[in-house]
Fold this sequence. Notes:
Layout: H1 2-41, H2 48-70, H3 77-80, H4 85-119, H5 133-162
Helix pairs in contact: 1-2, 2-5, 4-5
Amino acid sequence: MSAALAWLGTGLWWLSAATGWAALAFMTIVGAADVLGTALFSKPLQGTFEMSAQALAAVIFLGVLHTQINQSHIVVDIFIERLTAWPARLSKAVALSATALALGLIAVQTWPQFTASYAISEQASGALNFPIWPIKGLVSIGALSAMAVAAVQAVIAWIRLFGSSPETGEPT
Length: 172
């Protein structure tokens, strides 16, 4: 089971990283084209703001997935480092459970927005019309995936707190 979770986590890590980097590269290219178009030809690129805003949403939620897989959220080290073994494991289990709950609430809110947007083929309003349902889908899938990763991590943390190690089966 641990090998399957590790494989899935690695796959999600690479997918979120590649998609996030692609969105960042897109934002960079669009921003540079806008600046160059304005400076050299006095013609800004149409829709730069709208496209960058949509790409930024994808970067943020795919970044949340990437961060959750790595468990690299910001922590208050001065507090965590002073905890002994059992309270540290309890703190981790509670934090991961709260993270899973928060991400679940985000996923519950974003999925209906994505499906409604897809159903009407929603377009960005502004200087350039382009479909925004794919971005809403990435945001929703990113939140849902991050919630699933956090939930699995929380279950493992609770097992380690009260039961045996999922890897070895030995008591903690």
